What we know:
Blueprint: E1 11-18, E2 25-33, H1 40-45, H2 48-60, H3 64-68, E3 75-81, E4 86-92
Antiparallel strand pairs: 1-2, 2-3, 3-4
Amino acid sequence: PAEILIDNLPCIPDNLAWVDDNHSLFWIGCATKRTQPFSFVDFTSRYPTLRSFLASLLKQLDLLDYAYSFIPKYGLGLVCDLHGQIVYSLHDPTGAVSLVSGIYQYQQD
Length: 109
């Protein structure tokens, strides 16, 4: 069975990538931030069949772009350690960078 490493993140996580070759920290790309008191993305994550059905329906009705307008535009990336603690975060509250699917660290020589 899968083990929960981090619970109740401030975002909807998308992908993970190691920060460096030491494999002691990893990046989490955040598709969107969580909203309170209700997050439709969180609600539908518990029902993947419903989420897939709604996405297909919205696509067929050509309303997918309209639905995306309700997702908070907020760029967020997290660095976590192997104990599940957030040790660093990058934020773009303007939404110029949003729907982050992954982060890969680039180091110049």
